Amino acid sequence: MKKLVTAITIIIAAIFIVSCAKEQVKEPEKVGVDTNIVQVSNEQLAKYPVTGFAYKSSKVPPQSWDKWAKVAAPVVKGILDKLPEGYALEIRGHTDGRGPETAEGAKPGNMKISTDRAKAVYDSLGKAGITSPKLTYRGVGSSEPLSGADPKGAEQRRVTFQVVPK
Asked: Per residue in 110-126, pLDDT tens?
């Protein structure tokens, strides 16, 4: 009899422990369609920076642009066409780490140069027939350097694209 009571007590304790310890299964957090489109678009856009800018120049290098436009312009156009409400495609100009961020004397500063680069690419897209009220531009100076590259190197002088909330 004593063995039976012990066995029943162990079984009840085991059931109690299992029921208390059992985690409730939660539904996985649903990622919104907009969030997914934004993430996939940004991953795609990261592959297509416009490069080849000369030091302190905002002139879009023709040879670099021609190569870029053949491959990347259709990608940019496709993303713009599918961009959900509340989002914009931002063209971001970048500079290397040389020079001041803001204007000093005769030096225009990295913020102005990077903004001019972004505007130049924005204008070039317009000339190629890619326009949209969802297309914006801004300069970020040298605040977003490429990881693993010389902060003062030519590869930092580029224009990138990013889908952002409006």
From this structure: 999 999 999 999 999 99
